[in-house]
């Protein structure tokens, strides 16, 4: 079963709660929160209070994708805000193993996101404490970018080394075509931003991605 994770970054920002409930009704498996600090990437997006407010109106899994410098500083706040998983970029922490361990100690699923240029090598000695790997198929910072084809090889390499139960999620430029290629190469979870939120029928778009 392929998990479909709508990114709230592409939702109508004046109606975030309504949009979240609409994609939940339309069959989404989890909600992907893109947290950007204006330092690791140029954009600034949501803080923990936004995640906490939406926690009250949804029972879906909340994935918090931290695109921030010093992620350790923010783990506790997002854990308390109701994140189910917290995903950090390997490029943002000098002590990836410790950071992942801290996420697990807070009772959350732990995740690592890899920029397009980052190799999977940094995961090798952390595999037993990683629940989710996000392969970034665009450079982080904004939605609506074009899928980077070279990441398909990374997904396939990852599939060879990670335990069966670890989720391989792909984030960026996903549509029915690129989504299919990701799944063929071993992904079992897709983030969808502009493809979903620009569509007229959310249920149809989610179904298309899930069965692509
Ligand atoms: C990129 C974000 C993605 C992005 C996905 O920095 O991590 O989640 O918003 O949007 P699309 O699907 O439009 O590429
Ligand atoms: Zn993301």
Q: Which terms summarize this structure?
A:
single chain, 212 residues, alpha/beta, eight-stranded parallel sheet, 20% strand, binds D-xylitol-5-phosphate, binds zinc ion
Can you describe this structure?
The protein has 212 residues and is α/β, with parallel strands linked by helices. It has eight helices and eight strands. It has helices at 16-25, 48-55, 75-81, 96-105, 151-161, 176-185, 194-197, 202-210; strands spanning 3-6, 30-36, 61-67, 85-89, 109-114, 132-136, 167-171, 189-192. It has an eight-stranded parallel beta sheet. The longest helix is centred in the C-terminal third of the chain and has 11 residues, at 151-161. The structure holds D-xylitol-5-phosphate and zinc ion. Zinc ion binds next to β2.
Mean pLDDT: 98
Largest sheet: 8 strands, parallel
Strand order of the largest sheet: 1-8-7-6-5-4-3-2
Low-pLDDT regions: none
Quote the beta fraction.
15-25%
Q: What letter string, H or E per element, gives the SSE order?
A: EHEHEHEHEEHEHEHH
Helix content: 25-40%
* SS content category: alpha/beta
Spell out which ligands are present: D-xylitol-5-phosphate, zinc ion
End-to-end gap: 11 Å
How many extended strands?
8
Describe, in short, the structure shown.
The protein is an alpha/beta fold. Helix content is 33%, strand content 20%. The protein starts with a strand and ends with a helix.
List the helices and strands and how they pair.
Layout: E1 3-6, H1 16-25, E2 30-36, H2 48-55, E3 61-67, H3 75-81, E4 85-89, H4 96-105, E5 109-114, E6 132-136, H5 151-161, E7 167-171, H6 176-185, E8 189-192, H7 194-197, H8 202-210
Parallel strand pairs: 1-8, 2-3, 3-4, 4-5, 5-6, 6-7, 7-8
Helix pairs in contact: 2-3
The chain binds D-xylitol-5-phosphate (DX5) and zinc ion (ZN).
Residues 7, 32, 34, 65, 171, 191 line the site of zinc ion.
């Amino acid at each position: 079963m392929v998990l479909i994770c709508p990114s709230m970054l592409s939702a109508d920002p004046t109606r975030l709660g309504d949009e979240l409930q609409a994609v939940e009704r339309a069959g989404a498996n989890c909600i992907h929160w893109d947290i950007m600090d204006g330092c690791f990437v140029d954009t600034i997006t949501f803080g923990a209070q936004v995640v906490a407010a939406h926690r009250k109106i949804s029972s879906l899994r909340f994935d918090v994708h931290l695109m921030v410098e010093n992620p350790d500083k923010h783990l506790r706040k997002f854990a308390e805000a109701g994140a189910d998983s917290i995903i950090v970029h390997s490029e943002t922490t000098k002590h990836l193993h410790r950071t992942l361990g801290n996420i697990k100690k807070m009772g959350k699923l732990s995740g690592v996101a890899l920029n397009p240029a980052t190799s999977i090598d940094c995961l090798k000695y952390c595999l037993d404490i990683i629940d989710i790997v996000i392969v970034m198929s665009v450079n982080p910072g904004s939605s609506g970018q074009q899928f980077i084809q070279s990441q398909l090889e990374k997904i396939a390499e990852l599939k060879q080394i990670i335990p069966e139960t670890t989720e391989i999620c792909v984030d960026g430029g996903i549509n029915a075509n690129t989504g299919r290629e990701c799944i063929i190469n071993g992904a079992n979870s897709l983030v969808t931003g502009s493809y979903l939120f620009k569509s007229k029928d959310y249920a149809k778009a989610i179904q298309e991605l899930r069965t692509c």
